[in-house]
Amino acid sequence: VNVYDFPTKILNLYGDTKNGLWVGLFQKGLYYYKDITNMGSAIHSLREYSVSGTLVDREGGVWCSTLDKNIFYAATANSVSYSGIPRLDKRATLLKTADKKIFVSTAHNNLFEIRNGNIRSVDLENEHNQDYTDILFFKNKWYLSTKSATQVTDARFKGKFVRGKTT
Questions:
Q1: What is the C-alpha to C-alpha distance for residues 139 and 137, in angstroms, rounded to an integer?
Q2: Which of 31, 82, 108, 125 reaches 20 to 30 Å from 40, CA-CA?
Q3: Has residue 161 got a pLDDT over 70?
């Protein structure tokens, strides 16, 4: 007999047809173990919710009911939510791949790089309080745009805005 500890009460257990186990918890989200015979690591999602029901449909889509909000749907079991991560839980103005990296901009002057599941805040020399709307890496320089200005930086994101308001 193996005993597994969870941080709070279990609300729901669901075994899928591929030998996976889904564990819905009270106010601590959903844990997914890809193979019930190897419960070493889990995908943890919907972290701030109480997951009361889980099912996987014929196409592999995952459906979850919660006590807090309505129904959540993900197209695959490998979907990842960043909504519970501080500073990424705000309105996003940019989601783009540039130079083989994923960039997200949220709120005012927040730019993040996501690589291999790790999130890194990009520190920019910027006194403006605007949302980034685009990013491009070209000839070893980063070009970042807002609704009213463009910033050019070196490969380490050092540099200031080069153009003011555009018409």
A1: 7
A2: 82
A3: no
Q: Among candidates 153, 147, 88, which has minimal Cα distance to 117?
A: 88
Q: Are 161 and 128 in contact (CB under 8 A)?
A: yes
Separation of alpha carbons 77 and 82, rounded Å: 15
Percent of the chain with pLDDT over 90: 26
Joined together, the tokens standing for residue 79 give 């979907």
CB 32 within 8 A of CB 63: no
Residues 6+ apart with CB under 8 A from 81: 45, 46, 47
Q: State the Cα–Cα distance between residues 31 and 75, nearest whole angstrom.
A: 17
Identify the CA nearest to 10 among candidates 20, 29, 30, 24: 24
